[in-house]
Amino acid sequence: MAAVKVPEDPPPPHLPKDQLPNVYYCITSPPPWPEAILLGFQHYLVMLGTTIIIPTALVPQMGGGDTEKAQVIQTLLFVAGLNTLLQSWFGTRLPVVIGASYTFVAPTISIILSGRWDDPDPVTRFRKIIRATQGAFMVASTIQIVLGFSGLWRTVARFLSPISAVPLVSLAGFGLYTYAFPGVGKCVEVGLPELVLLIFVSQYLSTLLYRGKFLCDRFSVLISISIVWIYAHILTIAGVYDGKPLATQISCRTDRAGLIEAAPWIRVPYPFQWGPPSFDAGEAFAMMMAALVALVESTGGLIGASRLASATPLPPSILGRGIGWQGIGILISGLFGTANGSSVAIENVGLLGLTRVGSRRVVQISAGFMLFFSVLGKFGAVFASIPAPIAAALYCVLFAYAGAGGLAFLQFCQLNSFRNKFILAISIFLGLSIPQYFNENRAVKGYGPVHTSAQWFNDLVNVPFSSQAFVAGVLAFFFDNTMEKKEEIVRKERGKHWWDRFMAFKGDARSSEFYSLPLNLNQYFPSV
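User: That's the sequence. What structure does it adopt?
Assistant: C-alpha cells below.
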C-alpha cells in the first residue's frame, strides 16, 4: 500500500510586518508645513476633551468656581504642551501627546473628601486642596522616574512578547469604553451625528471623492467637529434647550462651560502658583499606586503608538527612557498644580491610525498649539465650548483604533496554540470583568469593594483593579512568563523570536533612525 503523502502547510495568507505599511507619513517623514499645522491643530482638538472634562468634574468639588476652573484648564494645557515636547525630544521620541489621565481622578477625589478642608471660603478651600494634590503628585512622580531611569522598567520590558503585549495594548484602548458611547448618550442629538459623520467622512466619503480623498482621510476629525459644533450652536441659540434639566444643558449647550467669560486674556502658568505644596504620607502612597497604574497603561499606549506610527518595536531601553521622562512630566504637573497627573493620551494614539500620519513634527506642532492657547486664555476657551458628547463620539473611534493597534501583534503569534489561547482569553476576559466589578461597586455604593477607614489604603487596592489595561497586562505578563516557555517551539509561538533583534538598541539599524536623541546626545546618553 502506497504511503499517503501529507500536504505541506500552506503559506500564511498575510506575511507579518515589523512596520505598519501604507501610512502617509512615518515618524521621520514630516508633511508639508501647511498640512502639518492643520494636522497638529487636529491633535490639539482631540486632546482637549480630557483636558476639559477632568477639571470640570474636579474643580467644583474642590470649591473653585469658573475662574479657578479656567485657570486649572490653562495650567493643564500648558503642562501638556511642555511634557509632549519633552517626550518627543528626549523620551521615546514617538509622536504621542502627554496629557491628562483618568487614572489619577480617584485618589484626587479621596484628597478632596478627606475631611481636612473645613474652610468657609470656597476659594481658600480650593487652594488648600490643590496644594495637597501638588504634594501627592510630586512624591508619586518618583516611582516612574526611578523605574524608568534606573533601568528597572527596561528589564521588565525585556520579558514582554507579542502575545503578552496584545492584551495590554488592546485594553489600553478598548478598556476606556465607559468614556465613549455613554458620553454620547448624555446628548444623543449632538453626539450621535458626530459619530456618524466622523465614520462617513473618514471611511466612505474618502472613497467617493477622488480629488478630496486626502482631505477626508487626514482631516475627518476637523471636518466633522466643525459641522457638528456649528449645528450644536444653532440648537443652543434657537432655544432648544431652554427649560431643560441642568444636566442636559451642561452636556448639550455650547455656552454652559462658563470658561470664555472666566478665562483671562493673557496668563502664563508658573510653578507653585497656588502656594507651597502640602504633603500627606497616605495620600502620597495612594497617588504612587495611581502613577504605577498609569505607567503600565502608558507602556501599552507607547507600544501601540510605535505600531501605528509605522516605527519598529520599541527597544526596552527606549521604553524605560520614555517612562522616566513621563515621571518628570508628573513632577512638572505637581509643580504647576494641574490637579491631575500626566500620561499618554490614548485618543491621540488612535488618531495616528485614523489619519495614517505618524509624524513626530505634527505632534510637536500640536504641543505648540497647547502652549499658545494656554497663555491666550480667551482664545483657548472658545474651543473649550465644544460640547463633551462631541469628544465622546471621537473617543468611540479613536479608543477603538488604539486598541486595534494591539491586535496587530497577533500576526507574530501562533493562534493555534492552546497556551496562547489561554493567555489571551483569561487576561482579556478578566481584564474587562474585574474592573467592571470594582467600578460597579463604586457606582452603586459610592466606594470600591475595599472600604476601610484608611482612604489611602482603599485607593491602593481599588485603583489598580479598576484599570482594564493594568489587570489584563499584568495577567498576560504573568502567564506568559510562568507557563511553559523554555522550549524553542513555545518561544516561536509566543512571537518572541520576532522581537529578538529589537531587544537591544543597536540590534536593528532602524532603531537609531526612529529613537536616537537629537543633537547627537546619544554619545553622552547611550541606549543599550
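Strands lie at 98-99, 343-344.
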